[in-house]
């Protein structure tokens, strides 16, 4: 009996070492880079006065990614684009 236990104990692996076929690691590619760039731009926009997370996302969707782009944009035109 002890020989049987010693043979099977060498085969056993902790659960965290057994690969789970349902869990697949996501490959880091262009999507991950674009997401990180988007997050950085949104965080940067949030540093501006009166710009929260939702407004920063809307501005990013309109193509405004930096404070410089925000400064150069026409406020009235931007307001109309945000209303849509």
Write the topology of this structure.
Elements: H1 2-11, H2 30-46, H3 53-61, H4 67-72, H5 75-83
Helix pairs in contact: 2-3
Q: How would you concisely characterize the structure shown here?
A:
With 84 residues, the chain is mainly alpha-helical.
Structural features:
single chain, mainly alpha
Query: Radius of gyration, rounded?
Result: 26 Å
Shape: elongated
Mean pLDDT: 78
Outline the low-pLDDT stretches: none
Q: Helix coverage percent of residues?
A: 55-70%
> How many helix segments?
5
- When the domains are counted, the total is 1
Structural class of the secondary structure composition? mainly alpha
What series of H and E elements makes up the topology?
Answer: HHHHH
Distance between the termini: 76 Å
Number of strands: 0
The fraction of residues in strands falls at under 5%
How would you characterize the largest beta sheet? none
